[in-house]
Amino acid sequence: MKALIVYYSMSGNVKQTAEAIAAETGADLLALYPVKAYPDKGAKKYLWGGKCALMGDKPRLQPYIFSADRYDTVILGSPVWASSFTPPLRTFIEENRATLAGKRLAAFVCYMGSGDQKALKKLKKALNVERLAAEMVLNEPIAKPKEENAAPIAAFCRELTAQ
Ligand SMILES: Cc1cc2nc3c(=O)[nH]c(=O)nc-3n(C[C@H](O)[C@H](O)[C@H](O)COP(=O)(O)O)c2cc1C
Question: Quick check: 163 pLDDT over 70?
Fold first, then answer.
């Protein structure tokens, strides 16, 4: 398996998880950045990002290189925003729909309290797939001891490499 992890992370939980999966599987990393960053402080942080996720926004992304030919597997990583996945991933999916259709797809989301399963369901709908090769939800991994995240991450990686 040669995998690419495509992720958006506002405050580091998804980034840390993506890096742990990369360390375990040898996957490459591609971080997405919207041209206009989402507010990450104050009242606007939840209101604006949440509204954009609910509305299915597709923000313009900073230039990125997706060398699709190098990978048979693409892993998408996102925080849960308003029980959905984040807008930068929506843009990426839209911009690479045809290419992604030919890959094994997996996904993980990080969340604070709820909406994790809904977010995965919406992600599968956006990808137009019934199921993913592997999926994982992690609750605020940065706040947890490393050992607590290690087991689900290892299980996710095993599922990925088993097929
Ligand atoms: C705009 C916004 C909306 C959010 N909505 C939810 C939500 O619906 N459910 C939830 O459990 N967590 C929600 N969260 C919390 C994040 O999903 C959680 O903190 C996640 O670990 C953040 O990942 P990151 O550090 O990679 O950005 C929200 C956070 C933001 C900024």
Answer: no
